[in-house]
Amino acid sequence: MAHATPQGVKLLNGWKRPGRFDKGLGAQLPEAYKKFWREWKLTTPAAVHYIPKEHQWERDPVTHAIKPVQNIPLPLIDTPESHKGIWGGEAVIKGFQKREQTKRRVPHFWVPNLRRSVVHSHVLDSYMSVVVTERTLEQIHECHGFDHYLLKNRACDLRSALALKLKREVLTALLNGVPALDAEPDRQQEVLKEYSRYLATYTPEEIDWYGHTYVEAIRKLQKQLRDAEKVKPHKVEFRSKLIEQLRQAGISEAGKLEKPGDKLAESSTEHKDSDIEALTKLESSPSSNWLSKINPFGKKET
């Protein structure tokens, strides 16, 4: 049966639904972004809303039966507001709550306690006012600074798009030698000595693609493709050919014909800038009545 199917042996294990990196522009994204995406979305984050059990087996306190331990993380909801702040791995939890013993349970949302605070980045040399949680501030103090907090934690633990964007800016600044501290060379060397060890785990390409959402990565890829293959409008190409044919015909209004011994750089720049002027001059000249008859957009004499 395997040899009779288009997919071969792969079909025997079930049909695999194509993912976002299997077709379209997603398949053209570099491996550096795919590595970041796996770290952000496919890696299990640290336990925040539950206490994981270290043992593999446990005894039930009522029945005394031995059962395996299951550390199942709670499903979290990342709201748009969570990506505008730094919540320290926390998110909204949806569940049910039984508020009275004699009544049925009701849906309930658990939201972290948020507050606005100011954080300071030594690498970027700037203060930022962001919405954080108590856990975020505790982790910043445990890591001995906001920059250490961003660089030590993985993308799955940072969660928010704002934190990942700031981490990319910090890594880019370290890669470029901390340009924000060019006026203070001594302090610049101290910052580089303290934070440059985090660059060992990233390549320049990975830093460039780090922290982008999927939509931002697609737009960046589209921009790179457009810049690599610049499309020249046909009207520019046809206009240049027309001017060249008129020059070869010896029409004085079209300019002089290039000679093989002329400099290519000077002639190319001059003709590119003077093509439009030459064509306009031809249309406005009295000796170009035949051209005005051909051109439907030219001015006709009355």
TrEMBL record:
Residues 254-275 are annotated as: Disordered. It comes from Drosophila kikkawai (Fruit fly). The lineage of its organism: Eukaryota, Metazoa, Ecdysozoa, Arthropoda, Hexapoda. Signal peptide: none annotated. The keyword Transcription does not apply. Residues 255-275 have a biased composition (Basic and acidic residues). One of its GO terms (cellular component) is mitochondrial large ribosomal subunit. GO terms for molecular function: structural constituent of ribosome. This is Large ribosomal subunit protein bL28m. It comes from the Eukaryota. Belongs to the bacterial ribosomal protein bL28 family. Keywords: Ribonucleoprotein, Ribosomal protein.
